[in-house]
Structure formats: C-alpha cells, structure tokens
Amino acid sequence: MEGFRLWPGALDAEAQSQLVQAVFGALGTAPLYRPQTPGGRPFSVQMSNLGPLGWVSDRGGYRYQPTHPVTGQAWPAIPQMLLDLWAATVGGKRAPDACLVNLYRDGAKMGLHQDRDEADLTAPVLSISLGDAAQFRIADGEGRTRTLRLTSGDVCALTGSARLARHGIDRVLEGSSRLIPGGGRLNLTLRIAR
Ligand code: MD3
Ligand code: FE
C-alpha cells in the first residue's frame, strides 16, 4: 500500500529495553487509564500520552488536550530517543507534539478505525511496537485488507494514502515476549496533532 513503510526490527534489544524503561518511568506521572468511547463504553486498551498534547476520548468525543484526564497534570515529555527516531525515519520540518501510549493486556484489541483527529491529516504517524506480537490489519480504499504481524522493535510510518486508511489490532499473541513488566504489548504512536 502506498505510504505504508515498515522497518522490521528497527530497534535492537537494548534500544527496546531503554525505551520501555523511559516510557514506564513517565507513566509514573501519567498513569495508564482506560478511556471511554463517546458512546460510554470502556476501551479494552489502556492508554496514556507523552508530549505537549495527548489524545483522549470520553463522552464529549475524541480530542487532543495538554493534560491527563484523571490527574489533571501535564503529560510528561516525549523521550529524546523517540524524537531521534522520528527525525531518522519520517524527518520533515516539524517534530511530533503527541505520543499516544497504548497497552494491550488480557485480550485487549482495537477495532478498525481511521486516525483523523489531527489538524493536518497529511502529517505522518510513526508507530513503534514493543513486547508481545500483534496481528495488525490495514484496509485500502478499495476494500482490500492486509494483515501483518507487528513484533517487538518494529517501526512503521504512515504517510500518503495509508495515513487515512482504516486499521486496527485484531489480536495480541499473549506471552510471545517478556519485554514488558507485567506482560502485554506496548504501542507508541508519534504524531503532529496541531
Ligand atoms: C495506519 N494503534 O493508536 S499502530 C492508534 O498498535 C492505533 O496500538 C495501533 O491504531 C496499535 O491509533 C496500530 C500502527 C498504526 C498507527 C497509526 C496509523 C497504523 C496507522 C494511522 C493511520 C493509518
Ligand atoms: Fe489508529
């Protein structure tokens, strides 16, 4: 698919554990929580954010905001490692201002959706997968759907026509990695929200 770029194993074991350490450290001040859909159902995925803006969902809808909805505190900074990874992969003039943290445990998954809450829908999204492997699905505009396995250390960039493609996580292969304390799959998505 045009605009979908995957770097399998872009992060080695050392980089992966450094990243997990940095993110779990930040989660001490911005704890994972389970947002509600606008319809009032809890997400199965636990979430938090890093950076000036964070993606949130509640009965008021989807939006980006500067503070954690539970603690009211500013989101912690995006680790430099991630800013460097953005520069090395998608590059461009702007740095990301939002990093959504998704933790999949206990059968959590994510239904097919589009990411369209960002001000500039042509700006790339960069995704980093850590921990358990997952079955990722992405659909093109013609109803063709592609599934691929995302494993720990994989990085993918969404630009061009892939940027508005419907995508989701069908299932996580629980116990396939021991990287994450307490188990599960951690996905980080770097974005330019505003
Ligand atoms: C394709 N996350 O946070 S990452 C999301 O693994 C999200 O947690 C999934 O979908 C996860 O919105 C998939 C790969 C990904 C991320 C963003 C995309 C694929 C994308 C944006 C547009 C198209
Ligand atoms: Fe998405």
TrEMBL record:
Keywords: Dioxygenase, Oxidoreductase. The keyword Transferase does not apply. The keyword Oxidoreductase applies. Residues 95-194 form the Fe2OG dioxygenase domain. GO terms for molecular function: dioxygenase activity. InterPro entries: Alkb (IPR004574), AlkB-like (IPR027450), Oxoglu/Fe-dep_dioxygenase_dom (IPR005123). Its cofactor is Fe(2+). It holds the Pfam family 2OG-FeII_Oxy_2. This is Alpha-ketoglutarate-dependent dioxygenase AlkB. It comes from Brevundimonas nasdae. The lineage of its organism: Bacteria, Pseudomonadati, Pseudomonadota, Alphaproteobacteria, Caulobacterales.
